[in-house]
Structure formats: C-alpha cells, structure tokens
Design a protein that fits this description.
By secondary structure, the chain is α/β, with parallel strands linked by helices. It is built from 17 helices and 13 strands. It has a 7-stranded mixed beta sheet with strand order 2-8-7-6-5-3-4, sandwiched between helices. A 4-stranded antiparallel beta sheet has the order 9-10-13-12. α6 packs across α12 and α14 packs parallel to α16.
Length: 472
C-alpha cells in the first residue's frame, strides 16, 4: 500500500507547461543531429553569459581545486560535515551581491538569511512556516506554473488567483486584491498572505511603486504575510529600474516594525548568474522565528559546502561582479529585442517588458476560437507542427486566452533566428489558408447570387464579375 501523497494528482505534472517539456525531450532540436526537432522556448534559463564565468574560473583556478589564496588545500574543510547555517563567507558575499543588484539602496543582514536548495525549496519552506494545510495564499495572474507544485503539493496550502487584466498590462489593482480575498472567504479558506514575483514570471515586468505600496498597505491591513520572489532582480535590462520590497519598507520607515516581520524575500542565483544546477536559493526574513524554523527545515535541502565556497569567491570579486551584471544585462536586452522584432515580422506583439528571460506574447488573433480550447489547439500546432515548445497562458492561470510565454535566453542567436523563421512560416501559411477559405466562402455565396444577375453579367471577365458581385 502507498501513501495518499503518492497516489494524488496535485503535483501539477499534467500541466501543459510540463507536457511541453516532455514533448521537447522526445524530439530535441540539434543543428546537426536533429535540425527539424523541437526548439526549447519553454525553459527560463540564462545561457548568455557563461563565457564570463568560465573566463573567471580560468583566471582563478584555486576555488575549483579546493585551494585557498595561499594555494593550500582546503579539501578536508569542505568535505567534512557542515551545519545547516551555511558558510559565513558565502552568506556575507551573497547579501552584498543582493544589495549591489538593488543599487546599494538597501542592505541585508546575513543573520536573517537562510540558504536553501534553490528557490523551489525556499518557497515551499516559507509555505510550511507561514501556512497550515488548507490555508491560502493569493497570487496575481498570470503566475509561474511551477507554483502549483512548489506551494501546494507537499504543504497542503491553497492558491487563490488575483485576476489581472491585459487592459492595464496585467497590473495589480486594489479591486483585484479585494476580490481575491473575498473569493477565498467564500471558499472558507483562511488567507495567510500574498505572493508576488518581482520581476514577474511570466510577464517580464517589474512591479511599480504604486503596486508595491498597495501590496504593503493591503497585507498590513489584513494582518497577513507578503512574499516577494525576487529571483529575476538582476535581469532588469531597461527602465523602469527594479524596486525591491525592502526599499518600500525602508522608505516608509517600517524596517523595525511588526509589518516588516511579515514581509519575506525569496532569492536565487539560478537566473541572475545562470546557475540553476548549483541549486542556490535563499530566504530573507526579518522574523527571527521564521529564520529559525526555515533554517532547521533547510537540513532537508542543503547547498553543498563546495558550491558555497566557489560562489563566495566569485561573488566577493566585486570588480568582476559589476562587469558581469552590466554585460549580462546588455546581452539580455539585445536578445529580448531580437525576439520582439522577430515576432513583429510575423505581426505578433509582446507585452512591453524590461526584465526576465522571456516575453509575454499575444497570439490571440491566431486562435480558431477565443477560448482556452482554442488556445490549446494553437499550442499543439506550435509544438508539433512548428516545432517550438512555448508555454500557454492557461498553464500560467491567465484569465484571457491567447497569451504565451516565450523564452529567449536559453539558446544561441542562430537558434532564435531559426525559431522566428518557423513562426513566420506558420503565420504566413495560416494567413494563406484563411484567405483561401474566405475566397471559397465568397465563391459559394456568389454562386447563389448568379440566378438574380442579368444575362449580360456572364459575359464579363471573372475579375469584373467579382467586383460587380461585391457592389451588389
């Protein structure tokens, strides 16, 4: 006999977000081995600046060889047992890096930082700390599909959507927050907090000052928690600049208040440095009880000492990190523009964005029907016929059909150009089919009208007959 956890279907693995990955893995694109394969555009991975990191490693070989600056081996120190508080050198380097990303506007206390095995673990750990099974968190839509797994599967927590609209660029409003809260109450769910991603995944936009003020005001008035997932904070490549929730607390003189204790930050090096395989995540909280409990829970998903040591050396090199952040942002901006311009050639528009590793793309005009069934039909065509794995908006719980998340930083320029050629070919073929279909309908309708036309009309050229029929 197996547990209910094994037999339940609440993991979210059956989401089209994950199904697209499965189809890609069955038929992955390769320039030489499989040139007609599926191109992976559903993976938010930053592969644009590996050369910078690799160059640093070549110039600084000691950390990879487990040696210190005196070229002495520290292998024994790193492989023996370390407690779950983490290496002080790494935590100090990480909080300084977090401050650097925010332009030095705020500072972080390493004692309030808890290391986790990636942001997935950080978000789940916070759920365990802040919510009981059956309690709810409010999330603005569209949101990262993995949250259905990360926040709910093992914790038993629930998600209630804050429905945002394309009318205002999917911005968070007071009315949307209040409506989500009421919906939770109608479902007899106790709301324990709001979770936002800033910058947004999948929108690629940063929360503005009004939204952040609104979130702090709303959560404090309801006496609930606010989690700000800021794992894309270092990817902001154009204005407006990134504003951390910590800056709002500081500017409102709330840093040493009870309100600040209910605000928590999730961070990771998976996106900003492109290191998802290193599994480096963190929770930052001003509540010592949350820090204590999540530190204990982190023993189920520790970051290895070797990884911490290597990253402490990289992050501590401030000159290199400034160069890296600047160049990485430049490359992200350039690649973002490539995608936007490429889609524009196919008459496809993107939501204006300034951050992230993806664009939020409007393909609603390509739907066979303005429904989520129509969205899934189009998505399947794009995956199987066009050979691109993109994420449908319905997997992100978007309330409007026809939106898709398309990633641009996990491939070469050549592959992105090929993807855009495939999109254009697909859109052009659809337009041609629609024109032919329209022409056939026109001819069928026209044939019914010929009986009422004068005899002399049949002596006109075919082109003239069409013109006359239109005029009638």
């Amino acid at each position: 006999m197996l547990s209910a956890k094994v037999t339940c279907n609440s993991h979210g693995q059956d989401s089209s977000y994950f199904l697209g990955w499965e189809e890609y893995e069955k038929n992955p694109y390769d320039e030489f081995k499989n040139p007609k394969g599926i191109i992976q555009m559903g993976l938010a991975e930053n592969q644009l600046s590996f050369d910078l990191l690799e160059s640093w490693l070549v110039q600084n070989p000691q950390p990879m060889a487990f040696k210190n600056h005196n070229n002495q081996s520290i292998f024994k120190e790193l492989v023996l047992f370390q407690d779950y508080h983490g290496l002080p050198a790494f935590k100090n380097a990480l909080v300084k890096f977090m401050s650097e990303i925010r332009g030095g506007s705020v500072s972080f206390d390493p004692n309030n930082l808890v290391l986790t095995a990636g942001a997935t673990s950080a978000n789940e750990t916070l759920m365990f700390c802040l919510a009981n099974p059956g309690d709810a968190f409010l999330l603005p839509t569209p949101y990262y599909p993995g949250f259905d797994r990360d926040l709910k599967w093992r914790t038993g927590a629930e998600i209630v959507p804050i429905h945002c609209s394309s009318i205002n660029g999917f911005r968070i409003t007071k009315s949307a927050l209040e409506e989500a809260y009421k919906q939770a109450e109608k479902q007899n769910l106790k709301v324990k907090g709001v979770l936002v991603t800033n910058p947004s995944n999948p929108l690629g936009t940063t929360l503005n000052l009004h939204e952040l003020d609104l979130l702090v005001s709303f959560t404090s008035s309801k006496n609930i928690h606010l989690i700000s997932d800021e794992i894309y904070s270092g990817t902001v490549f154009s204005s407006p600049s990134f504003i951390s929730i910590m800056e709002i607390l500081k500017n409102k003189n709330l840093m040493n208040t009870e309100i600040a204790k209910q605000v928590h930050i999730v961070y990771s090096l998976s996106k900003d440095l492109g290191l998802p395989g290193f599994r480096i995540g963190a929770i930052y909280s001003n509540d010592e009880r949350v820090v204590s409990a999540s530190t204990k829970m982190s023993s189920f998903g520790l970051v290895s000492s070797q990884t911490q040591y290597l990253l402490s050396e990289i992050l501590s090199n401030q000159k290199f990190m400034k160069t890296y952040l600047s160049e990485n942002r430049r490359r992200l901006k350039e690649r973002h523009e490539m995608l936007v311009k490429g889609l524009k050639k196919s008459r496809i528009a993107c939501l204006p964005s300034n951050s992230g590793l993806f664009c939020w793309v409007d393909m609603s005009h390509l739907l066979s029907s303005n429904t989520f069934e129509g969205e899934m039909k189009l998505w399947k065509k794009i995956v199987y016929e066009v050979g691109l794995n993109i994420s449908p908006g319905s997997s992100c719980h978007c309330s409007e059909p026809g939106w898709f998340r398309v990633c641009f930083a996990n491939m070469s320029e050549e592959t992105l150009n090929l993807a855009m050629k495939r999109v254009k070919g697909f859109v052009d073929s659809m337009a041609k089919q629609n024109n032919n279909s329209g022409h056939q309908k026109f001819m069928k309708r026209n044939s019914r009208r010929t009986k009422s036309l004068p005899k002399w009309v049949f002596e006109l050229s075919f082109h003239q007959r069409e013109i006359l029929a239109n005029e009638r």
